[in-house]
Amino acid sequence: MKIINLTTWALFVGLLFFWCPVSQAQSGADTASKAQALSDIQSHYDEYKKIALQIWDYAEVGYKEVKSSALLQATLSAGGFTVKAGVAEIPTAFVAEYGSGKPVIGILAEFDALPGLAQQAVPEKAAIDGKNAGHGCGHHLFGTASVAAGLEIKKLIESKKLSGTIRVYGCPAEEGGSGKVYMVRAGLFNDVDVVIHWHPGSDNAVTLTSALANKSAKFRFHGLAAHAAASPDRGRSALDGVEAMDNMVNMMREHIPQETRIHYVITNGGKAPNVVPDFAEVYYYVRHPKKDEVVRIFDWVAKAAEGAAMGTQTKVDYEVIGGTHDLLLNRTLAEDMQKNLERVGGVSYTAAETAFARKIQASFTYKVSGIESAAMVQPLKEEKDGAASTDVGDVSYTVPTVGLQAATWVPGTPAHSWQATACGGTEIGTKGMMVAAKTMVLTAIDLYTSPTLIKKAKEEFVTEKGDYQYKALLGDRKPALNYRD
Ligand SMILES: [Zn+2]
């Protein structure tokens, strides 16, 4: 037995000796490009930090991101990109390009903030005077890291280490505005080979979790104003219409698939109790892992609105505001990105950041993972049904798409919270953003240098998509540029 073992060992060592130099020779150029790109991008950290914190401060909501979009565009222009702004009939959307020919790699950049989430960069809840919106989803980091990655790839193309085209897509209004859907509809991704994206988060992980398809609309009820005490019989309450609709939808919940998520806010419920409201509005989201189910349930909700109007002798109409697909995952690309994320590693905190993180974690009412998990990379884990929605879904049904999340928030921090806005205004956020930027650069290098990887990713895309023909859930409406008004 001993002899056999020794022989096997000798064979193994021999093979290693014979095989290693070959594999190193093949990947030598990429490894040098990767090492150079990693150190170069890090040397620009202070500039990217400044840009991200500037956009954090602008905190502009969907389709109003004038200054944020202009700053990212200017950064790309200064770096040698050709920028086309105002694409897809959206003033703040842009496509920035460098290079020529194939492959064409796209990187998505978001930059919209959320209403009601203004917060100082401190570890306790603290509003900012005169400010409403805040970057509770970290899109200021999202946009900046994607621009940083694009600029780094551009340098490698410029120095002839890579060949092909790099595009950075400036994607407005992810939060409810479905910005990318219009960009997909306008054909802006048609010649792209692979799209790379990322999202801020509270750990470092490559995305193999799908998203919920989503369709949203504002239902507007019209009634008849009258004195609420002296002549209520002459009035018809638009708010009654809204409340009757909400009641019916809440009863629906028992009879629809349980993975469904329906939520609403009453955006206008009348102005004074002594006036029968002649106008009221309710804003609905309908979500489900499958887009067909979303359409079916949304149509049912619309029927509830009609019934409510009939019963309250009011009139109703509705405007579809957004509609996004679930996320079509690509395991081929995810496995490649995982290797690169593991090479980059997570975020380590200074003593002051650890103290900040402890205070943030103390504000949670539930158990969360330890602070040290920000420095770790999660193993690749596939989950079909996601818990959130994103307009990246529509891109993923058009082009093979891969993404990751990076720990820009203290472990355990939920998105859309004051804690997320707070972390995003510190170096916890900007250091996490660099993990994403670096991982995207390394993944792009693999794509430019390995036609086989792109081919395999495309084959998987075709198989997974099947015979589905892309159709925007929001129909042919024009961008809802004022949906935040
Ligand atoms: Zn987000």
Overall description:
This protein has 485 residues and is α/β, with parallel strands linked by helices. Helix content is 43%, strand content 16%. The protein has helices spanning 2-43, 45-58, 66-78, 139-158, 179-185, 238-252, 291-312, 331-344, 351-362, 392-396, 418-424, 427-449, 451-465; strands spanning 82-85, 94-99, 104-110, 165-171, 194-201, 205-206, 213-222, 261-268, 279-288, 315-324, 401-407. The strands form 2 sheets. It has a 7-stranded mixed sheet with strand order 1-2-4-3-5-11-6, with helices on both faces. Strands 8-9-7-10 form a 4-stranded antiparallel sheet. Bound molecules: zinc ion.
Summarize the structure.
With 485 residues, this protein is α/β, with parallel strands linked by helices. Helix content is 43%, strand content 16%.
Topology as a string of helices (H) and strands (E): HHHEEEHEHEEEHEEHEHHHEHHH
Task: Look at the helices and sheets and give the structural class.
Answer: alpha/beta
In this structure, how is the largest beta sheet organized? 7 strands, mixed
Question: Are there runs of 5+ residues with pLDDT below 50, and where?
Answer: 10-26
Largest sheet: spatial strand order: 1-2-4-3-5-11-6
Report the helical percentage: 40-55%
Number of helices: 13
Bound molecules: zinc ion
Would you count the extended β strands for me?
11
